[in-house]
Amino acid sequence: MSSMLLSTMRGCSVSPSWAVRLGNSSLSESYCLTLLSVQTKSKKTLARPGVKNVVLVEGVRTPFLLSGTTYADLMPHDLARAALQGLLQRTGLPKDAVDYIIYGTVIQEVKTTSILRHNINQRTLGAGFSDKIPAHTVTMACISSNQAMTSGVGLIAAGQCDSIVAGGVEFMSDVPIRHSRKMRKTMLSLSRAKTLGQRLGLIGSIRMAHLSPELPAVAEFSTAETMGHSADRLAAAFGVSRVEQDEFAVRSHTLAKKAQDAGLLQDVISFKVPGRDIVSKDNGIRVSSMEQMGKLKAAFIKPHGTVTAANSSFLTDGASAVLIMSEEKALAMGYKPKAYLRDFVYVSQDPKDQLLLGPTYGTPKVLERAGLTMSDIDVFEFHEAFAGQIMANLKAMDSDWFGQTYLGKKSKVGTPPMEKFNLWGGSLSLGHPFGATGCRLVTTVAHRLQKEGGQYGLLAACAAGGQGHAMVIEAYPQ
Amino acid sequence: MAGVRALGVLSRVTSRRYALFTGGTCRTFSVAPAMLAQTHVSYEVKGDVAVVRINDPNSKVNTLSIQMQKEMAEVMDEVWANDAVKSAVLISSKPGCFIAGADINMIQSCNSADEVTTLSQEGQKMFERIEKSPKPIVAAINGSCLGGGLEFAIACQYRIATKSKKTVLGTPEVMLGLLPGAGGTQRLPKMVGLPSAFDMMLTGRNIRADKAKKMGLVNQLVDPLGPGLKSPEERTIDYLEEVAIEYARGIVNKKIPIRKEKGRMEKIQDYVMSFEFVRNQIYKTVHSKVMKQSKGLYPAPLKIIECVKTGVEQGPVAGYLSESQNFGQLARTSESGALIGLYHGQVACKKNHYGVPQREVKTLAILGAGLMGAGVAQVTVDKGVHTVLKDTTVSGLARGEQQVYKGLNDKTKKRNITSFQRDSILSGLTGQLDYSGFEKVDMVIEAVFEDIHIKHAVLKEVEAVVSPHCIFASNTSALPIKDIAAASKRPDKVIGMHYFSPVDKMQLLEIITTDQTSKDTTASAVAVGLKQGKVIIVVGDGPGFYTTRCLAPMLAEAVRVLQEGVDPKKLDALTTSFGFPVGAATLADEVGIDVAAHVAEDLGKAFGSRFGGGNVEVLKTMVDLGFKGRKSGKGCYIYQPGLKTKEVNPDIGDVLEQFRMTPNPAVSSDSDVQYRLVSRFVNEAVLCLQEGILKNPLEGDIGAVFGLGFPPCLGGPFRFVDSFGADKLVEKMRRFEAVYGNQFTPCQLLLDHAKDSSKKFHK
């Protein structure tokens, strides 16, 4: 019943736009062009009666740095604190005005996550939030902070909260390296041993093999395949050449450099690193020539693979945070929201052969949910895990066969036009702190909508486990 | 038909040519005329690399048939003559198969050893030309690369294989009583070293791609791809071809070395192998190992050792000659005939001759979580079928579930499956004590205690809860199915499925149909069995069906032999030296003395004095003393956990003393004892065919070899009669009959064959 109602609503909303278009047709040629692109939207707005409007008030991030550089001596919660503090400063938010904090992270630091509350407190109390604000950590691989935000959207939409801080952090300069299972077992038994004899017996049972540590790997649990290896196979499956990948990587770096130089990356806050200088810029952007790119050897499938260090996203340290609120609350507090957070979807598929195809599955699904078409979208921001992964997704979306065989569509999904796609760089060039990238994507879409004057933006990302996420963002009327 | 096929090939070529034109790649077009005639092998030039594609249009697999070899020679001549071509890639267009081996029919249709030797020499010559090719040839392997296919691949300059489960390399000739006859015995030792080469050729086992890379059998691996713009299978072959072309060019440009730099271990191994006495020691060890395992009954392994030795010690000319001559001789041996017969039989018994069942079995329930029940559960659940394991007690259920877990966990340890796969397989197994959810079950297999009253009770309980389409299968080893079905409301849905223990190791499944069993029920049972990976024979109903009925008289005879004072160890030695993989006394322990006693009594009642011989009381007394075989730790032997060697149970002497019989020296020589055991087995098998329990001799042979361990080198009871001579067998039986009576009376069908030597079970 409700769905019927909804579809009628959707039907109605088209007609006024037609009227507007007809009215505008008498306008002069040059105006007509720009206006048309706005006016031919399938829908005027995605607001729905009875559903609360959720808005993005502000989004910030620390500079994203190559791991092992300036942040090397910090701890993950230091970075998180920097992002949260930056958000407080930029918004001037009263410290007790937040109802809930949700934070994303992937590789969890043992020391700080052994007790969850302790962990959150490290981040939030340190940043100056009230100790009356409940908080939790979420993890969903590379879309952890997306999950943090959408959890917040859910809390607001359900009327449970009005104002939420969401974010994420990843710190690859230091990852927890565990003792082997055998060693852990011995150590745990040791703590329970009562007599000296028992203790000595246990210590005596330690062998060389016990001492080899377990390193966390960016590998799938179900297939034990590393992500880069999977990306290489994916690129090969879609016939993505090495040159195509290198070209896309160069594009990403070039656009990122341009955006950085033009000062478009307003979400970056300056951060005084204890014991070091103030950091205020991402440091992974490197515009190389195709020749330089071509020199690199394959990083995963050796020697005939096509994924190299230069056409993959690099290990990154960084943290991000956003403030999301119900529209009334934001307006009541005197904020000027940046954008509406609208429909979103999570998808999941085969973690072996379709590990990184999340955007291909998520994009048509979220568009259908929102009642929009590909041409309605003005701003695309896709997470660039690997250049080969982006190209494979684009080819999958451009293939009738793939659309029919795997997406259950009559024909292909269609590809985002490149002139709207990741125009301020992406994860390949800016960096990809797993838990923090989602907020960067959302904030970038909002900023680009403001800057470029579009109405709808779409972000999509893939994640480990064959998962994916896509979200539609609507510009806040200026 | 052929015209259409030729047209198809032609149109494919033209479309490819067109694609290449637009791509701007330069190539020559001199290939078109040759394409017209060739249906199995084609080639296309990509830049300066010739891509030679193999595709047998008449079969699911590629075999090195006469036609294939002829076309391959023609195509290679063109490739060598074409100046624009610098290198070549050899690839199959079939997704699951590179080349599965030589064409067995081609070998079997030869009339003399010399003819087969000539075949072998032709193969050798062709591969020699490949080996000496001035243009490097890269074998791009996806799917099975076996026998002649592997010999082809190792003659090439470079090998690239897909890291797929379907890609296996091996030399299975020994399993057909043959040897790798196209240079394999000469090239393999050079490529992987003596020990590995012997291991491959003597066991015939399949080697997975990653292992092959480690051994140095292939040079490079390529990952199988998922779906892209084409199906995974198609795209993987394309990708393999692309990569292989890249490597072929790399080899020509000297960017890719053909030989891998040897590691330190390999250098040490080479050094050690350079001493003649070390090599001699290896030949000796391998020889004695083969003799120990084969009892000298199989000529092929010994010939393989001989060929390798000749090649290594006397040089390639002598080696290749020895290989081709021995190949010719082996192909004419009865052992090879028997093994090839079994191979064909196995292929035939892996097909469903009863059509597609109306409903696929998606949920299968097993009653009784004992050794059998849990074994059936294991081979079912790992094929993705939802499996319900029901027992009456918590402890019984726990034991059964643990057995399934252990079976899968052992596979994980051997790295056949990952721990993730193990866990997801196990999630398809439901253990329960009641009949809840049985309305969703498509088939029930009962493996409860062998007692007709319990079977009836269980059948009624099941029929009260299941849906009308559900099939009831009984895993009984001797009770007639029609007796069980007597309690059923729907006897058309009742069938027998006789598994062999241990279920995950034994390949055979004996399916028993009654007059009332519907065809669809049979089709469904066969479909389930095939899914479980079984070799299936379908037999008629009767006490002991086919397998148990053949085994019972042999075991009765074995008991008599024991009563006549032959030691269990001696009895085992006599049977294994005849070719049985397990000795008669050990077999009785494995089956269980109690089961044997039960069966002997039941079948004794059904068939009368023909099933006599040894005194059933011997077995009963053993059971009373707790000597139930391996499961109770004591039987004919004593079993101690952890100990591999087993001692004769000292107390069994007293039991046998009690039932002492005096042997008749006229029929008690070692050879006579062997034939007393075997002739009763064979006679009963022939009788089963005569009575229509068996549909054909082929299934009889497969059932005896795969279910009961009848000597594979003899090919089964029917092939044994053919090769040994029915008249000679009858003559022996008459001699035994004179002493022991009707237990040795040959059946009518056997007598018919004895009278007319042109009558054969196998043509």
TrEMBL record, chain A:
Record family assignment: Belongs to the thiolase-like superfamily. Thiolase family.
Subcellular localization: Endoplasmic reticulum; Mitochondrion inner membrane; Mitochondrion outer membrane
UniProt GO BP: fatty acid beta-oxidation
Enzyme class: transferase
InterPro entries assigned to the protein according to its UniProt record, in alphabetical order: Thiolase, Thiolase-like, Thiolase_acyl_enz_int_AS, Thiolase_AS, Thiolase_C, Thiolase_CS, Thiolase_N
Record-given protein name: Trifunctional enzyme subunit beta, mitochondrial
Listed pathway(s): Lipid metabolism; fatty acid beta-oxidation
Catalyzed reactions per annotation: butanoyl-CoA + acetyl-CoA = 3-oxohexanoyl-CoA + CoA; octanoyl-CoA + acetyl-CoA = 3-oxodecanoyl-CoA + CoA; hexanoyl-CoA + acetyl-CoA = 3-oxooctanoyl-CoA + CoA; tetradecanoyl-CoA + acetyl-CoA = 3-oxohexadecanoyl-CoA + CoA
PROSITE patterns, alphabetized: THIOLASE_1 (PS00098), THIOLASE_2 (PS00737), THIOLASE_3 (PS00099)
Assembly and oligomerization: Heterotetramer of 2 alpha/HADHA and 2 beta/HADHB subunits; forms the mitochondrial trifunctional enzyme. Also purified as higher order heterooligomers including a 4 alpha/HADHA and 4 beta/HADHB heterooligomer which physiological significance remains unclear. The mitochondrial trifunctional enzyme interacts with MTLN. Interacts with RSAD2/viperin.
Residues in Thiolase N-terminal domain copies: 54-328
Gene Ontology cellular-component terms listed: endoplasmic reticulum; mitochondrial fatty acid beta-oxidation multienzyme complex; mitochondrial inner membrane; mitochondrial outer membrane
Entry function: Mitochondrial trifunctional enzyme catalyzes the last three of the four reactions of the mitochondrial beta-oxidation pathway. The mitochondrial beta-oxidation pathway is the major energy-producing process in tissues and is performed through four consecutive reactions breaking down fatty acids into acetyl-CoA. Among the enzymes involved in this pathway, the trifunctional enzyme exhibits specificity for long-chain fatty acids.
Source superkingdom: Eukaryota
Start and end residues of each Thiolase C-terminal domain: 335-474
Entry GO MF terms: acetyl-CoA C-acyltransferase activity; acetyl-CoA C-myristoyltransferase activity
Alphabetical keyword list: Acetylation, Acyltransferase, Endoplasmic reticulum, Fatty acid metabolism, Lipid metabolism, Membrane, Mitochondrion, Mitochondrion inner membrane, Mitochondrion outer membrane, Transferase, Transit peptide
CDD domains: thiolase
Protein EC: 2.3.1.155, 2.3.1.16
UniProtKB/TrEMBL annotation, chain B:
Ranges of residues in domain 3-hydroxyacyl-CoA dehydrogenase NAD binding: 364-541
Keywords: Acetylation, Fatty acid metabolism, Lipid metabolism, Lyase, Membrane, Methylation, Mitochondrion, Mitochondrion inner membrane, Multifunctional enzyme, NAD, Oxidoreductase, Phosphoprotein, Transferase, Transit peptide
Parts forming coiled coils: none
Highest taxon in the source lineage: Eukaryota
UniProt xrefs under Pfam families: 3HCDH (PF00725), 3HCDH_N (PF02737), ECH_1 (PF00378)
InterPro entries: 3-OHacyl-CoA_DH_CS (IPR006180), 3-OHacyl-CoA_DH_NAD-bd (IPR006176), 3HC_DH_C (IPR006108), 6-PGluconate_DH-like_C_sf (IPR008927), ClpP/crotonase-like_dom_sf (IPR029045), Enoyl-CoA_hyd/isom_CS (IPR018376), Enoyl-CoA_hydra/iso (IPR001753), Fa_ox_alpha_mit (IPR012803)
Main location: mitochondrion
Site (Important for long-chain enoyl-CoA hydratase activity): 151, 173
GO biological process: fatty acid beta-oxidation
Site (described: Important for hydroxyacyl-coenzyme A dehydrogenase activity): 498
SUPFAM superfamilies tied to this protein: 6-phosphogluconate dehydrogenase C-terminal domain-like, ClpP/crotonase, NAD(P)-binding Rossmann-fold domains
Metabolic or biological pathway: Lipid metabolism; fatty acid beta-oxidation
EC number per UniProt: 1.1.1.211, 4.2.1.17
Catalytic activity: 1'-[1,2-di-(9Z,12Z-octadecadienoyl)-sn-glycero-3-phospho]-3'-[1-(9Z,12Z-octadecadienoyl)-sn-glycero-3-phospho]-glycerol + (9Z,12Z)-octadecadienoyl-CoA = 1',3'-bis-[1,2-di-(9Z,12Z-octadecadienoyl)-sn-glycero-3-phospho]-glycerol + CoA; (3S)-hydroxyoctanoyl-CoA = (2E)-octenoyl-CoA + H2O; 1'-[1,2-di-(9Z,12Z-octadecadienoyl)-sn-glycero-3-phospho]-3'-[1-(9Z,12Z-octadecadienoyl)-sn-glycero-3-phospho]-glycerol + (9Z)-octadecenoyl-CoA = 1'-[1,2-di-(9Z,12Z-octadecadienoyl)-sn-glycero-3-phospho]-3'-[1-(9Z,12Z-octadecadienoyl)-2-(9Z-octadecenoyl)-sn-glycero-3-phospho]-glycerol + CoA; (3S)-3-hydroxydodecanoyl-CoA + NAD(+) = 3-oxododecanoyl-CoA + NADH + H(+)
GO molecular function: enoyl-CoA hydratase activity; long-chain (3S)-3-hydroxyacyl-CoA dehydrogenase (NAD+) activity; NAD+ binding; transferase activity
Cellular-component GO terms for this entry: mitochondrial fatty acid beta-oxidation multienzyme complex; mitochondrial inner membrane
Location of the active site: 510
Residues covered by the 3-hydroxyacyl-CoA dehydrogenase C-terminal domain: 544-639
Keyword Endoplasmic reticulum: no
Record's subcellular location: Mitochondrion inner membrane
Alphabetized PANTHER family for the sequence: TRIFUNCTIONAL ENZYME SUBUNIT ALPHA, TRIFUNCTIONAL ENZYME SUBUNIT ALPHA, MITOCHONDRIAL
Quaternary organization: Heterotetramer of 2 alpha/HADHA and 2 beta/HADHB subunits; forms the mitochondrial trifunctional enzyme. Also purified as higher order heterooligomers including a 4 alpha/HADHA and 4 beta/HADHB heterooligomer which physiological significance remains unclear. The mitochondrial trifunctional enzyme interacts with MTLN.
Protein family per UniProt: Belongs to the enoyl-CoA hydratase/isomerase family. In the N-terminal section; belongs to the enoyl-CoA hydratase/isomerase family.
Name of the protein in question: Trifunctional enzyme subunit alpha, mitochondrial
Organism: Cyclopterus lumpus
